[in-house]
Amino acid sequence: MRALSVRRRGDAGELVLGDVPEPLLEDGEILVEAVAVGVCGTDREIVAAGPRRPPEGRDALVVGHESLGRVLEAPATAGVAPGDLVVGIVRRPDPVPCPFCATGRFDLCENGRYTERGILGRDGFASERFRLEPEYAVRVDPALGLAGVLVEPASVVAKAWEQLDHAARRPPRRALVLGAGPIGLLAALLGTQRGLEVHVVDRVAHGPKRRQAEALGAIYHTSTDQLDGVFDAVVECCGALVAEAVARTAPGGAACLVGVGDIRSAGTVDLAALTRDLVSGNKIVMGTVNSNRCHFEAGHDALRRAGAAWAGGLLTGQVGLEAWSGAFASDPGGIKSVIRIGS
Ligand code: BGC
After folding, report:
1. pLDDT score, position 194
2. What is residue 154's predicted lDDT score, i.e. its pLDDT?
3. Cα Rg of the chain, angstroms
4. Fewer C-beta within 10 Å: the chain N or C terminus?
5. Are the C-beta atoms of 153 and 40 separated by less than 8 Å?
């Protein structure tokens, strides 16, 4: 079968479309025919630099962690049946569990020996067929269609909001989302679904980013200078506006960092002033990465409530498997690029 694999060549990564063996039963009892994979910043990093950790004994890693596929074969007890659309959970716990992995919270693993499909030590989903263990397969409402490929990024955002819900100690009314990429717009979606007044900031003035934000009823700005006042919950999705995120957090409010941008673009942070601001404002700042099954389910619910028309509006770039390189090209005005693998 065909798959997109990355290997290291010197200091860089090299991504090729080529033949790989069929997936092994040890990857899971559910056999899935891939429909599409989404491409995100993590994929771009892996492709630029080569795999962080290829599967044991190999030098190439099949990429793709934002999946959507159709079940071909599944045991009767799997919870999904042939024909169902499914998405695969990304992370697998450490074989020697840390205290978090031991209680099922592998998304919080603290010793870094977990694996992640398409990212760390385990093949991803950018192959014509892949396998999933029943406990890592999430059924997708067929009404979502291709937009089901957004369940994984929506799960990351659902975890961020879960943490914000716990952290903010004032009844939330206003939320700020910095960055209107897929994560930012999904964060805005979950904010508006909580009944909040959501403000979104992105440099791109016109096009699908603004359209998708405004379709949610969010207020779109092209600079943080256009913002008024402070926000009960802030979601930083670009990695470059951390100081701004803290400054814009209301006293007793919380900011969640989801983006990992180039630290150089974050500018100089005056740590003493930042500390004073955090302490005197009783503010909480937290980071989040990865997601567990409950977050995949929450992300799926949020997309269903939004509807396929809004969710599909995030898929601004679609290419076939042969034309995969188009999905890695930079497109600052676009939102999410997907590679279509099957029908
Ligand atoms: C994925 C996460 C993953 C992280 C770091 C993100 O793009 O959505 O599931 O944990 O990359 O590897």
Report:
1. 97
2. 98
3. 20
4. C
5. yes
CA of 267 to the centre of ligand 1 (A): 24
Q: Evaluate if pTM is beyond 0.85.
A: yes
Domains of the chain: 2-140+313-340 (3.90.180.10), 155-287 (3.40.50.720)
For residues 29 and 64, give the distance between their C-alpha atoms in angstroms, rounded to a whole number.
20
Structure token digits, residue 80: 């999904």
Neighbours of 100 (CB within 10 A): 17
**Shortest-distance Cα residue to atom 7 of ligand 1:** 42
290 C-beta closer than 6 A to ligand 1: yes
Q: Which two tokens stand for residue 144?
A: 């979502």
Tell which residue, 257, 293, 286, 260, has the closest CA to residue 93. Answer: 293
CA of 65 to the centre of ligand 1 (A): 8
Q: Tell me, what's the pLDDT at 262?
A: 64
User: Which residue CA neighbors atom 4 of ligand 1 most closely?
Assistant: 290
Structure tokens at 289: 């990465």
* pLDDT of res. 97: 86
Name the nearest CA neighbour of 284 among 172, 168, 198. 168
C-alpha of residue 43 to centroid of ligand 1, in Å: 9
Q: Quick one: which atom of ligand 1 is closest to the CA of 66?
A: 8
Residue 289 Cα to ligand 1 middle (Å)? 6
pLDDT for 29 equals: 98
Is the beta carbon of 156 within 6 A of some atom in ligand 1? yes
108 within ligand 1 shell (Cβ under 6 A):
no
Nearest-angstrom CA–CA distance, 22 and 30: 13
Strands, DSSP E only, in 179-266?
A: 197-201, 219-221, 231-236, 249-257
CA–centroid distance for 266 within its chain: 21
Name the band, by pLDDT with cuts 50, 70 and 90, for residue 263: low
115 lines ligand 1 (CB under 6 A): no
Are 53 and 113 a contacting pair, CB within 8 Å?
A: no
The answer, yes or no, to whether any atom of ligand 1 lies below 6 A from the CB of 109, is no
